[in-house]
């Protein structure tokens, strides 16, 4: 067996193992898999070291791009649209923020009507979200308009 095959096997195995201890979002793993593929190909097809490095680089880049597309989370609508009811944990003074229990988590919240205050332990509807702040309206007010 050629020494380049051993070098590619050691480098490939080392990169794959390093991914276990230093997670790099699959970068080292894809580079390691590419090195292992080049180790197999270097004995059969590739005799030139520069050609092996070029194949390793192309394989690493291709596998990394493919894995990102395959494993990337699908972007969709915000979860805010699914469940719209929450409960105030603290009072929301007019024009200021308070806390709302929404989907089991405490969120910072502000009333959509700047002149309206919402008391604690009141049911509210989530109108929209601005960053990490929920914009809410009290249930009793929305029931009044219906």
Description:
The protein is an alpha+beta fold. It has 2 domains: 3-71, no CATH class; 79-145, Beta Barrel (OB fold (Dihydrolipoamide Acetyltransferase, E2P)), CATH 2.40.50. Helix content is 46%, strand content 21%. The protein has a 5-stranded mixed β-barrel. A hairpin with a 2-residue loop joins strand 2 (97-102) and strand 3. Helix 1 packs antiparallel against helix 2 (27-44). It is rod-shaped, with a radius of gyration of 28 Å.
Q: Topology as H/E string? A: HHHEEEEEH
**What integer value in Å does the Rg equal?**
28 Å
Number of helices: 4
Question: Termini separation (Å)?
Answer: 81 Å
**Derived structural class:** alpha+beta
| Helix content estimate | 40-55%
Shape: rod-shaped
* Low-pLDDT windows of residues: none
């Amino acid at each position: 067996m050629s020494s380049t095959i051993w070098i590619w096997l050691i480098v490939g195995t080392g990169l794959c193992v390093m991914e276990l201890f230093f997670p790099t979002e699959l970068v080292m793993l894809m580079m390691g898999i590419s090195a292992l593929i080049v180790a197999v190909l270097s004995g059969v097809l590739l005799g030139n070291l520069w050609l092996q490095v070029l194949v390793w680089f192309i394989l690493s880049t291709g596998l990394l791009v493919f894995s990102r597309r395959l494993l990337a989370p699908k972007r969709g609508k915000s979860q805010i649209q699914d469940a719209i009811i929450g409960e105030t944990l603290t009072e929301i003074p007019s024009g200021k923020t308070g806390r709302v229990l929404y989907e089991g988590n405490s969120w910072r919240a502000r009333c959509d009507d700047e002149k309206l205050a919402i008391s604690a332990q009141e049911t509210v509807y989530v109108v929209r979200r601005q960053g990490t702040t929920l914009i809410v309206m009290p249930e009793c007010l929305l029931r009044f308009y219906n």
